[in-house]
Specification:
Blueprint: H1 17-26, H2 30-43, E1 47-49, H3 53-68, H4 90-93, H5 119-127, H6 134-145, H7 157-170, H8 179-190, H9 202-212, H10 220-227, H11 230-234, H12 238-245, H13 249-260, E2 282-287, E3 290-295, E4 303-305, H14 307-310, H15 320-356, H16 358-363, H17 373-380, H18 384-391, E5 395-398, E6 401-404, E7 412-414, E8 420-422, H19 423-435, H20 445-454, H21 461-470, H22 476-479
Parallel strand pairs: 2-5
Antiparallel strand pairs: 1-4, 2-3, 5-6, 7-8
Helix pairs in contact: 1-15, 5-6, 6-7, 6-8, 9-10, 10-13, 15-17, 17-18, 20-21
């Protein structure tokens, strides 16, 4: 075989670092994008964020004026000028020593903000007021550490006993703790505020709250008797419950109403998790019968290349410092371009979605049109994977609420007339039917399927069951109310 050297021309696809960065930014949420921008700002001196363009220009003009003006004499503490500079306070020009009559207004102000106590802290404060022995106090602390966020005991008595015994051995105590002693301490804790804390299940929690009520409370005795057959109450087996308890229908109804006034989760008032708010990436408004789509200006960072460092770059300079500035300026420009392309692609895809789902904006979920990624990708001339990235963890604010862009994509179901209906619209119809049903005779999945067929939507019973379960709606037997 003869060896030879030749030229060959071929086309190939390659992911450049700039393209990889653009793809990665495209799938980031607004919060993740903000974190990525902050990382770039911290690592690249030639990239800067413009908070307010008008104020930035004003500050730059003021800096130039300040550089050209000699303020040495005016800043001399031994000399008092006739006229102070315009828009200047006394403290900005003259320094002074703080006295007892002139205290700082902000630096020494007391912080009066109140912090909410957690469930564990609230219980510990009450335990410290009880006349517990050292061992019982240790048991109480172990019980508190075993509470879940709802206030229920998330550990077995045997496990708590073992934990207490282990701690006593580490503290060189010779006391032996039994399970009965842990149960006694638990009974004391369950009578503290909130009532029922440390219960091992919902039935025990409700029973403790009923026992804490005054004996003259109406239906208190009947409700306690009904909780003895808690599984029948949960399964909604009213006939068997009436037979086992010997209560009449009216007594059973009054007992259920009393139980509804109790608190099922004693620790719900102490949930420390703050409300999380999603910031919309796109905002849709209606003006003069036209739906307008625009990016949320609050999540659109204004970035630019730092002019001070960019002016230091010399074309003919081959030093390491100059080369470093060149590389950083190139990275800053590429990053700004990638962020700009992300916003343009997001706006293009969101506008296409709004164009297809005008009926949803006008009438609600029942008018949702079937839409898949391929439809949007073909219209905006992008790949399906790109549309999938740009709609993941991106939110749009509409007059009907805040939705993820993925919400507007749904499969379709055939209709009697040969058309198509969105699965989201079918879910909304099922939810509406169930909301107006007779609670004594709830609609079965088969009945809902027949009602949908009357509206021209051909769906099977198992499809209705799947959509109902996705809405977290129980079956007709569980929704049935006999009293």
């Amino acid at each position: 075989m003869k060896l030879s050297v030749g030229l060959k021309i071929a086309n190939s696809l390659s992911l450049t670092p700039q393209l990889q960065q653009a793809i990665r930014l495209l799938q980031l949420s607004s919060l993740e994008l903000e974190q990525e921008i902050q990382i770039q700002l911290d690592s690249n001196p030639l990239l800067e964020k413009v908070e307010d363009l008008s104020s930035a220009e004003t500050d730059s003009d003021a800096d130039r004026e300040y550089e050209n003006k000699d303020l040495t004499k005016e800043l001399n503490a031994d000399y008092l000028p006739d006229d102070l500079p315009v828009d200047t306070d006394w403290d900005e020009v003259y320094t002074h020593q703080s006295t007892a009559l002139g205290t700082s207004e902000f630096e020494e102000r007391e912080d009066n903000r109140q912090s909410n106590l957690s469930l564990q802290e609230h219980m510990q404060n009450q335990i410290n007021l009880l006349n517990f022995s050292k061992v019982d106090q240790l048991i109480a602390y172990c019980i508190i550490d075993s509470l879940d966020e709802k206030g229920f005991l998330d550990a077995e008595i045997v496990e708590i006993t073992a934990s207490v015994q282990h701690l006593l051995q580490e503290l060189d105590y010779d006391d032996v703790v039994e399970n009965e002693e842990v149960l006694v301490v638990l009974k004391h804790l369950q009578r503290l505020d909130p009532i029922g804390i440390g219960s091992r299940n919902l039935a025990e929690c409700l029973k403790i709250q009923l026992e804490y009520l005054p004996p003259a409370t109406p239906s208190r005795y009947e409700a306690l008797k009904m909780l003895e057959y808690y599984p029948l109450l949960v399964s909604n087996d009213i006939n068997k419950l009436m037979k086992q308890t010997g209560l009449t229908s009216d007594q059973l109804k009054a007992s259920i109403e009393l139980i509804k006034t109790l608190k099922p989760y004693p620790g719900s008032d102490f949930e420390s998790g703050e409300s999380e708010y999603q910031i919309p990436d796109v905002v849709v408004t209606k003006k003069q019968d036209n739906w307008q789509v625009q990016l949320n200006p609050d999540v659109m960072p204004k970035l630019r290349v730092n002019s001070f460092y960019s002016n230091m770059i010399r074309r003919a300079d081959q030093s390491a410092d100059n080369q470093y500035l060149r590389n950083q300026m190139l990275e800053a420009k590429n990053f700004i371009k990638s962020v700009d392309e992300r916003h343009k692609t997001l706006l293009k895809v969101a506008s296409c979605i709004v164009k297809h789902q005008k009926a949803f904006l006008e009438q609600g979920p029942e008018a949702m049109k079937p839409l898949v990624l391929r439809d949007v990708a073909e219209e905006v001339e992008l790949h399906e994977s790109t549309v999938s990235r740009v709609t993941t963890n991106k939110y749009i604010l509409t007059p009907r609420g805040l939705f993820e862009l993925k919400y507007f994509f749904s499969s379709h179901v055939g209709t009697m007339t040969g058309g198509e209906c969105s699965s989201t619209a079918i879910r909304a119809m099922i939810k509406k039917m169930i909301s107006v049903e007779n609670p004594r005779k709830p609609l079965s999945d088969n009945a809902i399927a027949n009602l949908l067929k009357e509206d021209g939507i051909n769906v099977a019973r198992r499809t209705v069951a799947k959509y109902r379960e996705s809405l977290n709606i129980p079956s007709s037997s569980d929704r049935k109310v006999l009293i």
